[in-house]
Amino acid sequence: MLWGGVLAAAAVVAIVATARLSGGSGGTAATGQPANNAAAATAKGAELSQIKAADFHSMAVSPADPNVILFGHHAGVQRSTDGGRTWNTVSVSGDAMGMGFAGADGKVVFAAGHDTFVRSDDGGQTWKPVSSGLPGTDVHGLATAPDDPKVVYAYVVGAGLFRSNDGGEKWTKAPGNLPGDTMTLSAGPGGRLYAAGMGGNILRSDDAGATFKPAGKPAASLAMAVMASAVPDVVYAGAQGAILFSNDRGATWEKRAVPGGGQVLLGAVNPANPMDVAVVSIQADSAGHVFRSTDGGATWGPG
């Protein structure tokens, strides 16, 4: 694909928009390795699994056990206990456009999306609806702070960015402006917050969402996903056929290829190891191909 071409870039936006937004709250998904609509994995030692879903929205790695990974989509949540090799449906119905663990023990997890705001107190095994108190029910981004279990961020369509300092009980509108196409929030320590959207740009806040400024990116890279780490300066973004790695808060990026190409649409960083990152790449077969790296994307494999 020639990224310098306007038509090529527009086509990618359309494909990714379908993967981001299709399916609706009534979508269904079957997950596992391999997905029944995808070819068997060919990159032995690199690809961990393939996920079949109507859309691909969020991912989170447990801070207590890096083998526990959650994947969110319009029809709910899938959970892996073996580092992303196999996946099981857990007891939540509804949309999980954003998701995050709150606290180092890996028990509390929040997930939110279209008409959905749920909480788990057992690491994502079971979920219950909670009253968010937000000024809308269309949540297009949710993030939890790695250094404070009480801090939760939510982007509400038509209302803006909100922050909670008490674990989602009460919310305050953050003054920082975010684009209407915002789809992903990811929080680092010390009040750092990143946002990404369908426009392909990464925004960064260093003051808990009070103000935002553009982060840099390699020329012609469409970055629709951002994954902060628990280390202040390390952050990743998803791009076409690659992840973007930064160790200076997104000021500069290094492009690191993901096997098989496709758009890296979501991912998550192990809170205990900033070099351990899991991603999902949407490839030509429309499946989500799961990869994991323990060296920041320099190489890929089960580890």
Largest sheet: 5 strands, antiparallel
Strand content: 35-45%
- Report the helical percentage: under 10%
The CATH architecture can be given as: 7 Propeller
Into how many domains do the coordinates divide?
A: 1
Task: Report strand order across the widest sheet.
Answer: 1-2-25-24-23
Q: Gap between N and C termini, in Å? A: 30 Å
Show unreliable segments.
1-18, 20-42
Query: What is the CATH topology assignment?
Result: Methylamine Dehydrogenase, Chain H
Q: Which structural class is indicated by helix and strand composition?
A: mainly beta
The gyration radius over C-alpha positions equals 17 Å
Q: What is the count of β-strands?
A: 25
CATH C-level class: Mainly Beta
Quickly count the helices. 1
Output the helix-strand order: HEEEEEEEEEEEEEEEEEEEEEEEEE
CATH homologous superfamily classification: YVTN repeat-like/Quinoprotein amine dehydrogenase
Note the main attributes of this structure:
mainly beta; 303 residues; Methylamine Dehydrogenase, Chain H; disordered N terminus; 1 helix; single chain; four-stranded antiparallel sheet
Question: How would you describe the overall organization of this protein?
Answer:
- With 303 residues, the chain is mainly beta.
- The chain has one domain: Methylamine Dehydrogenase, Chain H (7 Propeller).
- The protein has 1 helix and 25 strands.
- It has a 5-stranded antiparallel beta sheet with strand order 1-2-25-24-23.
- The radius of gyration is 17 Å and the shape is globular.
- It starts with 5 loop residues before the first helix and ends in a 10-residue tail after the last strand.
